[in-house]
Design a protein that fits this description.
The complex is a heterodimer.
Chain A lengths: L1 H21 L1 H22 L2 H8 L1 H30 L8 H7 L1 H21 L1 H5 L2 H26 L12 H23 L13 H7 L2 H7 L1
Helix pairs in contact in A: 3-6, 4-6, 4-9, 8-9
Chain B lengths: L3 H8 L2 H8 L1 H29 L9 H29 L1 H4 L3 H25 L4 H4 L10 H25 L3
Helix pairs in contact in B: 2-4, 3-4, 3-8, 6-8
The chains are: A mainly alpha, B mainly alpha.
């Protein structure tokens, strides 16, 4: 047991040496970002309402339930649009009809999801900030947002001559496939937040401590 | 009828062993369960909101309902298969869980309602809702809307009870 702990520590020290050797300044900047995020999370955690929401069985349950159920509205409408843009469903309807007219219910779902998600973060700010899955989820959400903007720009730039075609052009289909893929990853990483596999109190490689933003554990290495 | 033996059998099965020992696989199946729910409920919401004249008004409802069918069945299959796998990990706990039974009752009701009442009523939607051209024997518009609201409510209860299993 002692030997394995020493081996893990040695392995982690090697990771530190390696990381320092490749780009020390870059690492320090990113560690500073981790510290800023940790301070922000700790500040939020200090509010009594944050603790109250976390400890309120029904209120927390309803907020989380709303977050999950609203997925069906937001991602459900997005699925319909993406399936049409992939050319596998609703082929009888012009693509623009679905994109334009499902935009509003989709955005209603997105706003509710965003508000309930912010409340969930507010209830458990420190653990969420130091969750590798939460961080991965945020990255995928940003990527999905950029992808959505690219698709929108592509459709606006085109003359929409393919609007009534059962199968849209390849670049549109690739964008729709990426949209579906990214949102699947968002859902999967969101679901994995419930697990403590890579929580800060676990033994793991130095890189994972850094990626999860475990500032106290990182400080212990110094 | 006592059906606890089904849960006892599931609890002792290899599926249960796999679900308990493979945390990574279990989390992936949980994600599949949620994604299937999104597909199923998303298509149901689209169809029912269309019949309530909330979205895609003026677009023939028959086209919408026909296109959603395949994806509803895929979502349903995904939910049931992943649900069985998830249940196997805590089969004996679920046997006495009220939310689980509420969810199962809702699921059965939702499937029966969807395949019988909803299907029959939506195919006879009046022109004012369906936009499918004149029907020979249309039902009243309020009947269509009542069926849409009832159907949405049933599936909402299934999803909400499912979510609440985790808290109980």
């Amino acid at each position: 047991m002692l030997l394995s702990s020493k081996l893990i520590a040695l392995h982690q020290l090697r990771n530190i040496s390696y990381l320092r050797s490749i780009a020390p300044q870059n690492i320090e900047e990113k560690t500073m970002l981790n510290e800023l995020l940790f301070k922000f999370a700790t500040w939020l955690d200090g509010f009594q309402s944050s603790t109250n929401l976390h400890e309120a069985i029904y209120a927390y349950g309803w907020v989380e339930g709303t977050h999950v159920l609203t997925l069906t509205l937001f991602l459900g409408m997005l699925l319909v649009i993406d399936l049409r843009l992939l050319g596998v469903a609703f082929k009888e309807l012009p693509a623009s009809t679905l994109v334009e007219r499902l935009d509003k219910p989709m955005m209603v779902g997105f706003v509710i999801m965003l508000i309930s998600g912010a409340l969930l973060f507010y209830a458990i700010p420190v653990r969420s900030t130091q969750s590798i899955w939460f961080r991965v989820k945020v990255v995928f959400i940003l990527a999905a947002g950029i992808n959505a903007l690219l698709i929108r720009n592509m459709t606006r730039a085109s003359d929409m001559s393919w609007d009534n075609d059962p199968v849209p052009p390849k670049r549109i289909r690739v964008g729709a496939a990426m949209s579906l893929g990214l949102w699947i990853l968002v859902v999967a990483s969101g679901r994995n937040m419930a697990y403590d596999w890579w929580d800060c109190h676990k033994e793991m490689p130095h890189f994972m401590y850094w990626a999860a933003g475990c500032v106290n554990e990182l400080a212990a290495f110094e | 009828m006592d059906i606890v033996f089904i849960f006892e059998w599931l609890d002792a099965s290899w599926l249960s062993d796999l679900a308990r020992t493979s945390a990574g696989l279990f989390s992936m199946v949980q994600a599949v369960h949620i994604l299937s729910m999104i597909m199923l409920c998303g298509m149901i919401i689209l169809g029912d909101l269309r019949m309530l004249n909330v979205v895609l008004t003026g677009v023939p409802s028959a086209v919408i309902i026909q296109n959603t069918k395949k994806w509803i069945y895929i979502g349903l299959a995904g939910i049931i298969l992943s649900g069985i796998y998830e249940s196997s990990a805590i089969a004996m706990k679920l046997a006495t869980n009220s939310f689980f039974w509420a969810k199962m009752a809702g699921l059965a009701m939702g499937i029966i309602f969807m395949l019988s009442v909803r299907s029959a009523v939506y195919s006879r939607a009046p022109e004012v809702i369906g936009s499918n051209g004149s029907q020979s024997d249309p039902v009243d518009a309020w009947v269509v809307k009542l069926v849409a609201v009832a159907h949405l409510f049933i599936w909402f209860s299934v999803a909400a009870n499912g979510r609440w299993i985790g808290f109980s």
